[in-house]
Amino acid sequence: MNTRANAAFLVSESIVNLPNSITMSRICCIPLLIWMLSIYFPYRSFHGEQEIFASLLFILASITDGVDGYLARKRGQITTMGMLLDPLADKLMITAAYVCLVQFNPHLMKAWIAVLVIGREFLVNGLRSIASTEGFTIEASDLGKLKTVIQIVSVVAVILAHAWYAWHFGWFILPVEWIAIAAIYFMVLVSIISAVDYFVAFWRKIDHASANRRSGFVLSRRKDISAANKIV
Protein backbone atom coordinates (compact mmCIF):
# COMPACT_ATOMS: atom_id res chain seq x y z
CA MET A 1 0.00 0.00 0.00
CA ASN A 2 2.82 2.40 0.89
CA THR A 3 4.54 1.69 -2.42
CA ARG A 4 1.36 2.41 -4.37
CA ALA A 5 0.71 5.58 -2.37
CA ASN A 6 4.25 6.81 -2.95
CA ALA A 7 3.99 6.05 -6.66
CA ALA A 8 0.68 7.93 -6.90
CA PHE A 9 2.19 10.86 -5.00
CA LEU A 10 5.20 11.00 -7.33
CA VAL A 11 2.95 10.90 -10.40
CA SER A 12 0.71 13.68 -9.07
CA GLU A 13 3.74 15.71 -8.05
CA SER A 14 5.27 15.36 -11.54
CA ILE A 15 2.02 16.52 -13.15
CA VAL A 16 1.12 19.32 -10.72
CA ASN A 17 4.45 21.14 -10.68
CA LEU A 18 5.25 24.85 -10.98
CA PRO A 19 5.83 24.95 -14.78
CA ASN A 20 2.60 23.03 -15.48
CA SER A 21 0.69 25.27 -13.06
CA ILE A 22 1.94 28.35 -14.93
CA THR A 23 0.86 26.78 -18.21
CA MET A 24 -2.58 26.05 -16.76
CA SER A 25 -2.85 29.66 -15.60
CA ARG A 26 -2.28 30.74 -19.21
CA ILE A 27 -5.15 28.52 -20.33
CA CYS A 28 -7.34 30.02 -17.60
CA CYS A 29 -6.55 33.50 -18.96
CA ILE A 30 -8.23 32.66 -22.28
CA PRO A 31 -11.89 33.01 -21.18
CA LEU A 32 -10.89 36.14 -19.25
CA LEU A 33 -9.37 37.64 -22.40
CA ILE A 34 -12.49 36.77 -24.40
CA TRP A 35 -14.62 38.51 -21.77
CA MET A 36 -12.38 41.59 -21.75
CA LEU A 37 -12.63 41.95 -25.53
CA SER A 38 -16.41 41.51 -25.56
CA ILE A 39 -19.23 44.02 -25.26
CA TYR A 40 -20.02 42.59 -21.81
CA PHE A 41 -16.86 44.00 -20.22
CA PRO A 42 -18.11 46.61 -17.71
CA TYR A 43 -15.18 49.06 -17.97
CA ARG A 44 -15.76 50.29 -21.49
CA SER A 45 -15.23 54.00 -22.03
CA PHE A 46 -13.42 56.53 -24.19
CA HIS A 47 -10.48 56.52 -21.79
CA GLY A 48 -9.26 53.09 -22.96
CA GLU A 49 -9.60 51.05 -19.76
CA GLN A 50 -10.86 48.03 -21.68
CA GLU A 51 -7.94 48.13 -24.13
CA ILE A 52 -5.36 48.61 -21.36
CA PHE A 53 -6.69 45.72 -19.27
CA ALA A 54 -6.92 43.35 -22.25
CA SER A 55 -3.42 44.29 -23.44
CA LEU A 56 -1.87 43.78 -20.01
CA LEU A 57 -3.57 40.40 -19.63
CA PHE A 58 -2.33 39.23 -23.03
CA ILE A 59 1.21 40.46 -22.34
CA LEU A 60 1.31 38.70 -18.97
CA ALA A 61 -0.03 35.49 -20.50
CA SER A 62 2.59 35.72 -23.25
CA ILE A 63 5.37 36.16 -20.68
CA THR A 64 4.30 32.97 -18.93
CA ASP A 65 4.90 31.15 -22.22
CA GLY A 66 8.64 31.67 -21.79
CA VAL A 67 8.67 31.37 -18.01
CA ASP A 68 7.12 27.89 -17.81
CA GLY A 69 9.54 26.46 -20.37
CA TYR A 70 12.54 28.04 -18.64
CA LEU A 71 11.51 26.73 -15.23
CA ALA A 72 10.78 23.26 -16.60
CA ARG A 73 14.29 23.02 -18.08
CA LYS A 74 16.04 24.58 -15.07
CA ARG A 75 14.21 22.48 -12.45
CA GLY A 76 14.27 19.28 -14.50
CA GLN A 77 10.48 19.14 -14.55
CA ILE A 78 9.86 18.47 -18.23
CA THR A 79 6.82 16.19 -18.25
CA THR A 80 4.55 14.66 -20.86
CA MET A 81 1.69 16.74 -19.49
CA GLY A 82 3.73 19.91 -19.91
CA MET A 83 4.75 18.96 -23.45
CA LEU A 84 1.06 18.55 -24.26
CA LEU A 85 -0.31 21.61 -22.46
CA ASP A 86 2.32 24.21 -23.45
CA PRO A 87 1.74 24.22 -27.24
CA LEU A 88 -2.00 23.74 -26.66
CA ALA A 89 -2.11 26.84 -24.44
CA ASP A 90 -0.19 28.85 -27.04
CA LYS A 91 -2.49 27.89 -29.90
CA LEU A 92 -5.66 28.47 -27.85
CA MET A 93 -4.47 31.89 -26.71
CA ILE A 94 -3.53 33.08 -30.21
CA THR A 95 -6.67 31.62 -31.76
CA ALA A 96 -8.94 33.22 -29.14
CA ALA A 97 -7.18 36.58 -29.52
CA TYR A 98 -7.46 36.73 -33.31
CA VAL A 99 -11.06 35.52 -33.40
CA CYS A 100 -12.06 38.11 -30.78
CA LEU A 101 -10.19 40.88 -32.59
CA VAL A 102 -12.15 40.25 -35.79
CA GLN A 103 -15.19 41.46 -33.86
CA PHE A 104 -13.42 43.90 -31.54
CA ASN A 105 -11.51 45.84 -34.20
CA PRO A 106 -12.69 44.74 -37.67
CA HIS A 107 -11.18 47.86 -39.20
CA LEU A 108 -7.72 46.36 -38.72
CA MET A 109 -8.20 42.66 -38.08
CA LYS A 110 -9.84 41.15 -41.15
CA ALA A 111 -11.46 37.72 -41.03
CA TRP A 112 -9.14 36.30 -43.72
CA ILE A 113 -6.12 37.18 -41.58
CA ALA A 114 -7.51 35.24 -38.62
CA VAL A 115 -8.34 32.28 -40.88
CA LEU A 116 -4.83 32.32 -42.35
CA VAL A 117 -3.14 32.46 -38.93
CA ILE A 118 -5.31 29.72 -37.44
CA GLY A 119 -4.98 27.57 -40.57
CA ARG A 120 -1.20 27.91 -40.40
CA GLU A 121 -1.24 26.67 -36.79
CA PHE A 122 -3.35 23.64 -37.78
CA LEU A 123 -0.97 22.89 -40.66
CA VAL A 124 2.16 23.01 -38.50
CA ASN A 125 0.54 20.92 -35.75
CA GLY A 126 -0.57 18.38 -38.34
CA LEU A 127 2.94 18.13 -39.80
CA ARG A 128 4.41 17.71 -36.33
CA SER A 129 1.90 14.98 -35.48
CA ILE A 130 2.71 13.05 -38.66
CA ALA A 131 6.42 13.51 -38.02
CA SER A 132 5.99 12.16 -34.50
CA THR A 133 4.26 9.04 -35.76
CA GLU A 134 7.11 8.55 -38.25
CA GLY A 135 9.65 8.71 -35.42
CA PHE A 136 11.23 12.11 -35.92
CA THR A 137 10.64 15.67 -34.78
CA ILE A 138 10.56 19.05 -36.51
CA GLU A 139 12.28 21.60 -34.33
CA ALA A 140 10.95 25.14 -34.08
CA SER A 141 12.79 27.35 -36.53
CA ASP A 142 13.95 30.91 -35.97
CA LEU A 143 11.17 32.03 -38.32
CA GLY A 144 8.62 30.33 -36.10
CA LYS A 145 10.00 32.10 -33.03
CA LEU A 146 9.99 35.43 -34.87
CA LYS A 147 6.39 34.78 -35.91
CA THR A 148 5.40 34.27 -32.27
CA VAL A 149 6.95 37.59 -31.21
CA ILE A 150 5.27 39.46 -34.08
CA GLN A 151 1.93 37.84 -33.21
CA ILE A 152 2.18 39.19 -29.66
CA VAL A 153 3.06 42.67 -30.94
CA SER A 154 0.25 42.63 -33.51
CA VAL A 155 -2.40 41.51 -31.01
CA VAL A 156 -1.43 44.17 -28.45
CA ALA A 157 -1.19 46.88 -31.14
CA VAL A 158 -4.60 46.04 -32.62
CA ILE A 159 -6.19 46.10 -29.16
CA LEU A 160 -4.68 49.50 -28.35
CA ALA A 161 -5.49 50.88 -31.81
CA HIS A 162 -9.16 50.36 -30.98
CA ALA A 163 -8.95 53.32 -28.60
CA TRP A 164 -6.00 55.35 -29.88
CA TYR A 165 -4.83 56.35 -33.34
CA ALA A 166 -1.54 57.63 -31.93
CA TRP A 167 0.10 58.40 -28.60
CA HIS A 168 1.55 61.88 -28.13
CA PHE A 169 4.55 62.29 -25.82
CA GLY A 170 5.39 65.93 -26.29
CA TRP A 171 7.16 66.26 -29.63
CA PHE A 172 7.30 62.47 -30.04
CA ILE A 173 4.31 60.75 -31.68
CA LEU A 174 3.84 56.98 -31.49
CA PRO A 175 1.55 55.92 -34.38
CA VAL A 176 -0.34 53.07 -32.70
CA GLU A 177 -2.59 52.27 -35.65
CA TRP A 178 0.23 52.26 -38.18
CA ILE A 179 2.28 50.00 -35.91
CA ALA A 180 -0.71 47.64 -35.73
CA ILE A 181 -1.11 47.60 -39.52
CA ALA A 182 2.61 47.00 -40.08
CA ALA A 183 2.71 44.24 -37.43
CA ILE A 184 -0.34 42.48 -38.87
CA TYR A 185 0.89 42.27 -42.43
CA PHE A 186 4.46 41.52 -41.42
CA MET A 187 3.06 38.71 -39.27
CA VAL A 188 1.07 37.40 -42.25
CA LEU A 189 4.22 37.37 -44.38
CA VAL A 190 6.33 35.63 -41.73
CA SER A 191 3.53 33.12 -41.03
CA ILE A 192 3.40 32.10 -44.70
CA ILE A 193 7.18 31.87 -45.02
CA SER A 194 7.55 29.89 -41.77
CA ALA A 195 4.74 27.52 -42.83
CA VAL A 196 6.58 26.85 -46.11
CA ASP A 197 9.79 26.37 -44.12
CA TYR A 198 8.11 23.81 -41.85
CA PHE A 199 6.66 21.99 -44.86
CA VAL A 200 10.05 21.83 -46.62
CA ALA A 201 11.71 20.52 -43.43
CA PHE A 202 8.92 17.95 -43.04
CA TRP A 203 9.17 16.84 -46.67
CA ARG A 204 12.93 16.36 -46.43
CA LYS A 205 12.58 14.34 -43.24
CA ILE A 206 9.76 12.17 -44.54
CA ASP A 207 11.50 11.65 -47.88
CA HIS A 208 14.69 10.62 -46.09
CA ALA A 209 12.74 8.24 -43.83
CA SER A 210 10.95 6.72 -46.84
CA ALA A 211 14.27 6.24 -48.64
CA ASN A 212 15.70 4.44 -45.61
CA ARG A 213 12.66 2.15 -45.45
CA ARG A 214 12.95 1.38 -49.16
CA SER A 215 16.68 0.66 -48.74
CA GLY A 216 16.00 -1.63 -45.80
CA PHE A 217 13.34 -3.46 -47.79
CA VAL A 218 15.71 -3.99 -50.73
CA LEU A 219 18.47 -5.23 -48.43
CA SER A 220 16.14 -7.64 -46.69
CA ARG A 221 14.88 -8.93 -50.02
CA ARG A 222 18.45 -9.52 -51.20
CA LYS A 223 19.25 -11.40 -48.01
CA ASP A 224 16.14 -13.55 -48.43
CA ILE A 225 17.03 -14.30 -52.05
CA SER A 226 20.63 -15.22 -51.22
CA ALA A 227 19.44 -17.46 -48.39
CA ALA A 228 17.00 -19.18 -50.72
CA ASN A 229 19.74 -19.77 -53.29
CA LYS A 230 21.95 -21.37 -50.64
CA ILE A 231 19.11 -23.71 -49.63
CA VAL A 232 18.55 -24.71 -53.26
Textual characterization of the structure:
- The chain has 232 residues and is an all-alpha fold.
- It folds into two domains: 1-104; 106-232, no CATH class.
- It has helices spanning 2-15, 18-36, 49-75, 80-104, 111-133, 142-161, 176-231, and strands at residues 167-169, 172-174.
- A two-stranded antiparallel ribbon has the order 1-2.
- α2 runs antiparallel to α3 (49-75).
- It is globular.
- The model is unreliable at 5-13 (pLDDT under 50).
Instruction: Provide the helix percentage.
Output: over 70%
The main sheet orders its strands as: 1-2
End-to-end Cα distance, whole Å, is 62 Å
Mean pLDDT equals 79
Count the E strands: 2
Strand content: under 5%
How many alpha or pi helices? 7
Poorly predicted runs: 5-13
Order of helices and strands: HHHHHHEEH
Overall shape: globular
Summed up, the domain count is 2
| Structural class determined from secondary elements | mainly alpha
| Main beta sheet | 2 strands, antiparallel
Based on CA atoms alone, the radius of gyration comes out at 24 Å
Oligomer: single chain
